[in-house]
Design a protein that fits this description.
This protein is α/β, with parallel strands linked by helices. The protein is built from 13 helices and 16 strands.
Length: 407
Amino acid sequence: MTGPTVDVLVIGAGPYGLSTFAHLRGRGLKVRIFGETMRTWVSHMPYGMFLKSTPSASNVAAARPGFELPDYCRTVGVGAPTGDEPVPLDLFVRYGRWFAEQLAPTVEPAEIRAVDRVNGAFRIETSEGERFDAATVVVASGLIGHAYIPPELADLATGRSDDPPVSHSSEHTDLSVFAGQEVTVVGAGQSALESAALLSEAGAKPTVVARRSPLRFADTPEPPRDGGRRLTAKPGSPLGPGWSLYACAKGPALFNRLPDRVRLDLVARILGPSGAWWLRERVVDRFPVETGQHLVRATADGDRVALHVAGPDGIGRTIRTDHVLSATGYRIGADSFAFLSPDLRRALTRLRGWPRLHAGFESSVPGLYFVGFPAAASFGPLMRFVCGTAYAAPRVTEALVARAHAA
């Protein structure tokens, strides 16, 4: 065995991992954080993208003031988005890297290849061959490893070639490679609609095929009037206007206490597939959008794809296209978190694939914590957004400190 034993290992250097590490600094614990800084945002999202959240909901939480997006913009001398202005992806990535330089300067870029439980501790192995023990582990790996492609498309997405005719939206950072091609985008959410807009603007010929009918777009965030009052009866929240979104943003602890069935139903329904308020004008009447369509199967058609769908009346038809982009989101499955040993994965109590988490974000495996996207079924849809770091990081930090003091 080489390398030091650590109190906390943080896996992932995106917003949740960086925020957790920043809160743990100075708390008397030996902490290491591994991962490429902002990897999901750099390697799995397309150039030209904007965040779905408002500027005020796009801050990575720190334990002290001075490290929000406007602070970064002032430091480097660029204008900060305000109000309902969308936040560009490249600006957010630069902000995240700056946050890491200031508050998580010891990020180690190696990947965590294996985590197992040995003699009451976690045995860790990195991609560089280093092995060490950690008392606790915080999984903050974001969306990596959770991309979902429907079974109707899966056969053409893998195994045929290095350039399969079906791919997930997270596989592309440069959609201009599809210029001149017919691309069918499957999905009705932000990823699908923004990908289609970017494809169209890059010279491709997109068609959106969606089960949802009609498409939905978020309401434009409404600024408070005098005394903080708003023009409408809907309260504002970091997730958007509306009572359900307000409750999810303000009450993750209460969400965690709801019965499992209720939580799973809410996390599936609230913030269902929709586009951001600023995306409507880039989608409506810009390219074909076919709603109410159910996937039946996809088959090879020479160098193209024959996408078989059925409408609301059950009548099937075939769409022939150069490529199918599956913008169908992310799911936590039984095989998620491949870096965890089979024994650890079997020991996780799950809710339809999601790890069940206690109040301090600890799973059913003592000492194993999850923050960010995997925590959504336990703490609500707030965990899908950057602003959720302000709730998660302080609480997991207090749980880890208390655990270390009790040991």
